[in-house]
Amino acid sequence: MAATLQTWAKGAVLEVQEYVRLLGQVARAVVTPPIYYRDIIEQFDSIGVGSLTVVLLAGLFTGMVLALNSGMTLDQFGARSMVGRLVSASMVKELGPVLTGLMVSGRVGSGIAAEIGSMLVTDQIAALRALGTDPIRKLVVPRVLAGLLMVPLLTVLATGVGMVGGWLVTVLQFHVASSVYWSSVTQGLYMQDVWMGGIKPFFLGFTIVTIGCHVGLRTTGGTQGVGNATKLAVVASSVAVIAVDFMVTKVLIVLIY
Amino acid sequence: MSSRQAQPRPALLDEALSFGGPIIVFDSVDLAFDEKVILRNVSFTLQTGHTKVFLGASGAGKSTILRLTLGLLKPDAGRIFVNGEQIDRMREDALMQVRADLGMVFQEGALFDSLTVRENVGYKLYEELGWPIDKADARVAEVLGFIGLGEFIDRMPSELSGGQRRRVAIARAMAAKPRILLYDEPTTGLDPITALTVDEEIIKLRDLEGVSSVLVTHQLRDAFFVAEHAASRETHDVSFEKAPKEKTDQAEFIMLKDGGILFEGSATELRDAAKDDAYIRSFLS
Fold first, then answer.
1. What is the pLDDT of residues A153-187, one digit of tens each?
2. Which residues from A are below 8 Å from B102, CB to CB?
């Protein structure tokens, strides 16, 4: 039992050590040449544009269901005009960033782990190094930059579409005037909420892609290993999204509220 | 893009590493992964323009020697010199410079499956050396012509047969005109006729382009064919014939066993050694 615990603890410490080492390598590679601009643009397209549909759909339906549930409750108090307030506060502060993060984890985190893992087990990463290319610069940095910058953009879009979804339900189901809904949306928002909703996605995007890359680069065991790496990347990055969301929220509450 | 060109060597070093000079040197190299010893006190020298053939059972450490030569792995002890540079403690950035003069053909080819044959072969030229597109395209066409796969230039790796993938991998390794080529079981899993075409490419590169080669294989037929044949060009055609003794002596065999060197010598000496050593005999039979 003690031996098992010791092995597990050693493995966990090693993973953390390797993850931190990867972050250090990325930090160095971002500020020193060579920088592979074409790969960066490709990753912006793949991670940003490629995730648009799934993120927008998730945002739309979340806004709709939020309006539906809060509308039903508020209706009991004759306060259906306040639905916009609840939708905007929830979407901007919490649901927009977290849902976008979870959607991107499922789509992008797994994809990165599978792609890099496959390259590793088929010696393509070794071939890259043999050809004089640093895999961190070529594969990891473009994905990290894309995750860091595209997840916040996707979050803004998901939040916006979520509010539109809330508006549709509020107007069509609860027969509240559009102007009342949108006025309620703005009344429910404080600058601190916008800051919180705007800052969090940077951390979430960074966490998702770095975990995907780390897991991909640690893949062992052929095609079965790639499958395991993909699963692990989704699970780890999804849990990390929730955990990082909590920690960043805690810090931001202290700093900006 | 960077400018990781193979730097011109200083005149004295260039002279020292001319034909017959020590282009790769392993000096008492040890390597172990945890408790498992991979290489134990391995020393050898590859001379410029010569071929070193590594034989041995699976897991004997053959491929590890290639990875150490490229700096993909670091030895636990001992020294490794490539092209006059000591690489065993070199940082990754500096190693990139050394790798500029090395090409490696991986097992199964390790072609980038999202790139076409053209992009694979020209990868180093387009991405790392920053050659102008026209010049890089011309070189890609030239090397694909050299290996006889010019018409496959726009295919994806998944559309190629196993033998074609290995030959494209050879083309990719030679595109930037390295002085040293490392082959990791280039004919494993290929039928004898396709394997022969790969062997011929290795001989052509050695005899017509002056490339120093390290060949790791457990295909004895291919190892002896590469060691005992020579290529010559007559106008446009390349012909292969039995090499004279002084040429076959330039191909040296090393047999690894349990991480150490069991035998080192020419093809003839290897056959002679088989008479006295049961392990070598079982390997050659």
1. 999 999 999 999 999 999 999 999 999 999 999 99
2. 130
Residue B3 falls inside a structural domain: no
Could A131 and B128 be called an inter-chain contact, meaning their C-beta atoms sit closer than 8 Å?
yes
Segment-wise mean pLDDT, segments of 10 residues, chain B, 285 residues: 60 70 92 92 94 91 94 95 92 89 92 96 94 95 90 96 92 93 91 89 91 92 94 85 90 93 93 90 83
Same domain (yes/no): B55, B187: yes
Q: Are B23 and B179 in contact (CB under 8 A)?
A: yes
Does B58 contact chain A (CB < 8 Å)? no
Identify the domain boundary among B135, B151, B177.
B177
Q: Using the beta-carbon criterion (under 8 Å), do A129 and B99 form an inter-chain contact?
A: yes
pTM of the complete model: 0.89
| A105, A238 Cβ separation under 8 angstroms | yes
Amino acid at B126: Y
Residue of A43, A112, A116, A131 to mutate, testing the B interface (most B Cβ within 10 Å of its Cβ): A131
The residue segments making up the domain with residue B150 are 113-177
- Residue pairs between chains A and B whose CB atoms are closer than 8 Å: 52
Q: Which domain holds residue A113?
A: 36-256
Residue B6, in any domain of the structure: no
From B1, B107, B123, residue closest to A131, measured CB to CB:
B123
Q: Kindly state whether residue A80 falls inside one of the protein's structural domains.
A: yes
Q: Do A132 and B106 touch (CB under 8 A)?
A: no
B166 touches chain A (CB under 8 A): no
Residue-wise pLDDT tens digits, A7-22:
999 999 999 999 999 9
Identify whether A34 is preceded by a cis peptide bond (ω within 30 of 0): yes
Under an 8 A CB cutoff, do A122 and B108 touch?
yes
Task: Give, in order, the Cα–Cα distances in Å from B240 to each of A74, B44, B142, B200.
Answer: 89, 28, 21, 8
Taking the C-alpha atoms of residue B25 and residue B79, their distance in angstroms, rounded to an integer, is: 8
Q: Is residue B140 located within the same domain as residue B161?
A: yes
Interface confidence (ipTM) of the complex: 0.87
Pairing of strands B77-82, B22-33: antiparallel
